[in-house]
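Quick one - first record:
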Amino acid sequence: MIDHLGIEVADYARSRAFYERVLATLGYGVVIEVTRDMTGGYEGCGFGPPGRPHFWVGKGDGEPGRGAHIAFTAGSRAQVDAFHAAALAAGALDNGAPGLRPHYHPHYYGAFAIDPDGHNIEAVCHLPADTDA
């Protein structure tokens, strides 16, 4: 159900260093880092086991400590599309239309919305288009 989650931080470099030190005790490290140029405004990194970032820390245009990012696993790209449409119809604000996000990996297909309480919610499918159900 939960694919990954993230928190907005006040000082990205400080928080990255903090979580690198703390999560290393559990065997987790930085799996991927993204820049503002790659994402259109967010810089951050994902921690987890090799090849699978589950916990993100970063800085975007939001206010630290206000809201969270929660990504839900979708079984197909059609489910991602349906999630986004349902969220907007239910009153969410668009935060990124369904589409590929190749800066994460070549098959990353996601859509983003801001829920009524200001949380950035996402549905993501990691499958290649030809294996989409």
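second record:
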Amino acid sequence: MWASPFVLRVRLALSLKGVSYEYVEEDLKSKSELLLKSNPVHTKVPVLIHNGEPVCESSVILQYIDEAFAGIGPSLLPADPHDRAVARFWASYIDDKLLKASSQASSGKTEEEKAEGAKQAAAAVETLEGALMECSKGKPFFGGDSAGYVDLMLGGLLPWVHVGDAVKGVKTFDPATTPLLAAWADSFGALDAVEPVMPEVGKLVEFAMAMMSQAAAAAAATN
């Protein structure tokens, strides 16, 4: 699904590794038999089908791509076991803290819930600024000189970060408060492997506004 940040993570990983693939778009309101059979537990995208076998969940797919195509392109995860564990920790943090808080900030049931989500998201961004300093060791990416697993996990969310900034008139990765993340976002977005697969922010804004209108209409109908 073109607007999914989780699908984008996988497309970014395949692009970064230089692996050719067939992209199949799903209509999530009328899911195909291929998707339903490939992912019967969640029936969600993305699903990677390799050698006839499905692999599900974006974080798992990224690790699979790194192992299955180890001889192609750059490694996504570090060679050192401790560094790999650290990368997996921060990848989980991005989904468990930043993503959940951001979702609450935009979709909370009350204004109090939204405010609390925004507060937690800001704290998560601040924590990731410190993580980038620790992981990058003065280099541009969480992976050091080149983008890796954590960069892809966060990079898949980047277009939606820009959407939130455009809609709310804020700057999530602000050069004044999180200069490392601001520079990281610019460096990541400028990569040759990244730019061609990134969705247009303007198109995403239109999509988000349409979804918000539908949600508001549904809520009004129930009331």
